Amino acid sequence: MSNRIGLIQKRDGDWCKDVEETGVEIIQYFKDIFTFEEPQGIDDILNDIPQSITNVKNKQLTSPVTEQEVHRPVFSMHPSKSPGPNGKQILDNVLVAHECNHFLNNKRSGKKGYVAIKLDIFKAYDRIEWTFLEKLILKIGFCQQWVGWIMECVSSVSYSVNSNREKKGFIKPIRGLRQGDLLSPFLFLICAEGFSALFNQAVFDFVKEKVLSRISGWREKMLSMVGKEMLLKSMVMSLPAYVMLCYKLPKEEVCKGIGREMAKLWLGSNREKKKIHWIGWEKLSKVKQSEGLGFRDLESFNQAFLAKQLWRIFTRLNLLVSKILKVRYFKGTLVWKMKGRSIDSWYWRSILSARTLLEKGVRKRVGDRKTIDIWEDRWIPGAVGGKVSTQRDPELGL
């Protein structure tokens, strides 16, 4: 005796009258999943995606496949392993989640607390828009020929519904990735780059809106110049502090945008009444010893925070975050000579941007003299730039 689908409830609340109507409802349900209206806002997401594929890589991708290239991956697999990312099983994720949950449920003492964040991507593979996928991989830098091949693989699929042992309907999808296709996980990871960019943008928008909402509320109050100064220095500058500790804020959209609104509040401008800014914000953000008012420049403040984080990683190697970053990014290369990559996390790219600022104040300590270059390294305390200012004489052999 086999299982059969009888009558199902339709989305409008009514029940199907017979098996045929049930089949029609099932087919329509899957058609709705795999079809869509033209997605909006794709260009806004792609703006923050960097190009990471070079012409050399594109040439390698589009060159004819050799027999050796096919032989190497196939025969490198263990006989008992199936194709996939290092034989990883879905069950591994369940076990990791279970152990994390178990730890959190049994954490009943101590002052330090922990939290788990669950990100539920609903029917992720089915919801990948082909339009978005194509524009994304083009933005990353893949050439049109390779993108055409990939989209041909993605879009050549069609579906039928197996209802009560009968194949019904014909669905030609215009979105979604095929489950079980070895190409799908990699395409989904590429799409995750777009999600990451969207997430970062949401964080930055939140910071900006939070600050601007505070400033907007203060405009309605009769505040003295001293009151405005205290509010701007104590309240506004503290709001984005936690984000600035981890991420580099966009210069134009966030840093300068908040700076303009702070200047308007300070000078008494509002939507109905605008005043001439006789003094630029660059002047106001200087320290009082330099004839400024001591307002912090958000971009410089952000850089200082990131430099502090980088210094903390250098000097506290026992921290878990230091160990993870060292294994993931350092790989035997000095951080001063390390090149940022587009595949690096936004956090790592942010703190790497503070290297130049940190390097200005760092001095190499002289030990056994085996790893120091007296001409190129910064090792002289108190000297401008920390380097030897004497002209190097080639005849001395130093």
One letter per element, helices H and strands E, the order comes to HHHHHHHEEHHHHHHHHH
Give the % helix: 40-55%
Number of helices: 16
Give the overall pLDDT as a whole number: 76
Regions with little confidence, pLDDT below 50 for 5+ residues: 83-89
Backbone structural class: mainly alpha
Short description:
It is built from 16 helices and 2 strands. By secondary structure, it is an all-alpha fold. It is extended, with a radius of gyration of 29 Å.
Report on this structure.
The chain has 16 helices and 2 strands. The chain is an all-alpha fold. The termini are far apart. Mean pLDDT is 76; it is low at 83-89. Pfam families: RVT_1.
Distinctive features:
398 residues; mainly alpha; 2 strands; 48% helix; Reverse transcriptase domain-containing protein; RT_dom
SSE inventory with pairings:
Blueprint (H helix, E strand, L loop, with lengths): L18 H16 L7 H5 L8 H8 L4 H9 L14 H16 L24 H11 L3 H12 L3 E5 L2 E6 L12 H36 L5 H10 L6 H4 L6 H17 L13 H4 L13 H18 L4 H11 L15 H7 L2 H7 L37
Antiparallel strand pairs: 1-2
Helix pairs in contact: 6-7, 6-8, 8-11
Protein name: Reverse transcriptase domain-containing protein
Pfam family, one: RVT_1
InterPro entries: RT_dom
